[in-house]
Amino acid sequence: MKDHLFVYLEIENGKVEDVSLELLTKGRSLANQLNCRLEAVAIGNGLESIGSQVFPYGVDVLHLFDDPRLYPYTSLPHTSILVQLFKKEKPQIALMGATSIGRDLGPRVSSALFSGLTADCTSLEIGDHEEKKEKKTYARLLYQIRPAFGGNIVATIVNPENRPQMATVREGVMKKEILDAHYKGQTISHPVEKFVTEADFAVSVIERHIESSKVNIKGASIIVSGGYGMGSKENFNLLYNLANTIGAEVGASRAAVDAGFAEHERQIGQTGVTVRPKLYIACGISGQIQHIAGMQESSMIIAINNDPNAPINAIADYVITGEVETVVPKMIKYYKKNSK
Amino acid sequence: MSLKIIVLAKQVPDTRNVGKDAMKADGTVNRAALPAIFNPEDLNALEQALRLKDQYPQSTVTLLTMGPPRAAEIIREGLFRGADGGYLLTDRVFAGADTLATSYALCTAVRKIGSFDLLISGRQAIDGDTAQVGPQVAEKLGIPQITYAEEIQSVKNGKITVKRRLERGIEIVEGKLPLLVTVNGSAPGCRPRNAKLIQKYKYAKTASEKQDATAPHIHLYDARPYLNLEEWSADYVNADPKQCGLSGSPTKVKSIENVVFQAKESKTLDSSDQQIEELIIELIANHTIG
């Protein structure tokens, strides 16, 4: 019996990345609906502790490919391994993170297997599908739901005929939740040399500087977020001041990140992180749909904008019409005055 | 040394600045209100190609774009900025393609162009944001890929060194040519149009555009062969129609919904000291902050 659900694990310094654990959580619940196994694939070097990291998320089978040449990640060897493993195991679904690794690997694997891949899904569900022209129905497909057209529409994509049904999901979109701390799965160690050839090592990493994430946007209970309307990187300092005063993280819209006002890891929205803080203070953010989709579930939203007709005002609890440069220092001043 | 460089570029609707007039009353996107532009990261890609040509002037930079006949604009735009030539792949057979069918079509066209040292494209197009077509073209051509490039640092002795910009850092990687590089928006922007090149190429047209061309310039096309832009059909690049367009696409769009957000009843404040202090006191009192 094949037809299981596979998750590709992203591993940095022997640690499974959050995005993969979030996918295991989602994968576990989809596998329950489909009555199939949740299997995980770890490709890298020194993978002894991966099992203890992922089994609590409900992994039934862990496939290990442990070889010094497989870390850090390069496209071809990881592709070769997944393609051959998937040809043999015939998963019905394969999920990976919509990260610089998953978005490099996923398309290459999908091209080699001729299986459809949907990038940056914001929701994954199981459902039936009918191809009206061919009068064919398909039971229990993966609905791959993603924003399109700059976030103005949301499309549901299906892969009726080809397997695996592949999807990538950004970090922070799904929730990470341990299923059972004592859950035990099976580990299979595969012989790497049977999966890769010398030619797969055509690209080599000479230098690498990866920092662990300094920003904890996902977990912040208060977020002060800036948009293109902040005008400059220097003006973002206002937001850091407010954030430091009230104990918040600083976020940014895509336009602000594209303009270089803030780092990419602070980006909130469909192409960044999805957040659900108890307070979201949007400063100089007009409110493109793609941004709103990533923060609309905030418990309370304050919008500060000099444009009284900014679209974000429609979803805000409080709209402060005025210049951010005037309003934010006053918020700091009155917080200091009134808090103990 | 000379390099044969092919730049993959796409004409896209400008989804970055969807203003109020770009949404119709029923909430759907008014595509006609969105200008068609050169995909931004493909311009970053073109710049990387042109820098290699600056360094090795014998090199050629050729654009390849797939789209409707009006996408010939992309070729002209590239010529204005320093590319040597380009091909427009256009055919109704390609319509409705997902990323796999698109990469198949582009792959057949690259094969038709012939040998190359380097394929360069933007990381992703702003109308889909998938970042899939580059790696899929590379896979179909059987060449390696280097994605998320911020700078091509050097090309020598058949090897390329590239700085990649990742979410949380950078990587310097080295690969053997030929291969594909996809370029990030964080890479340097493209040089502006060159006035002399605009003069040279402003009447450059594809065969179908020439049919509408106004009479005064018609005589130019025989005298100046570089004004004739090549337009390729699926048949011409030996593309198998079954692998093109909708029929070559494993993914199907099941449904599309417009994004509608639930409007809230909001309280509007001005920026006066009194109103802001009252708000802060309220937020402290209900334990939202502090």
Quick summary of this structure?
Chain A is of the alpha/beta class and 340 residues long. Chain A contains eight helices and 18 strands. Helices cover 25% and strands 30% of the residues of chain A.
Primary descriptors:
heterodimer; A: 340 residues; alpha/beta; 7-stranded parallel β-sheet; 5-stranded parallel β-sheet; 8 helices; globular; B: 290 residues; 10-stranded mixed β-sheet; two-stranded antiparallel sheet
Explain what this protein looks like in three dimensions:
The complex is a heterodimer of chains A (340) and B (290). With 340 residues, chain A is an alpha/beta fold. Chain A is built from eight helices and 18 strands. Chain A has helices at residues 18-34, 50-54, 75-89, 102-113, 236-246, 254-258, 289-292, 324-338, and strands spanning 5-9, 11-12, 15-16, 38-44, 61-66, 93-97, 117-121, 123-131, 136-148, 153-158, 165-169, 186-189, 203-210, 222-226, 249-252, 279-283, 300-305, 318-321. In chain A, the strands form four sheets. A seven-stranded parallel β-sheet of chain A has the order 7-11-6-1-4-5-12, sandwiched between helices. Chain A has a five-stranded parallel β-sheet with strand order 15-14-16-17-18. In chain A, helix 3 (75-89) crosses helix 4 and helix 5 (236-246) packs parallel to helix 8. By secondary structure, chain B is of the alpha/beta class. Helix content of chain B is 28%, strand content 28%. Chain B is built from eight helices and 14 strands. Chain B has a ten-stranded mixed β-sheet. In chain B, strand 8 and strand 9 form a beta hairpin. The mean pLDDT of chain B is 91. Strand 13 of chain A pairs antiparallel with strand 9 (169-176) of chain B.
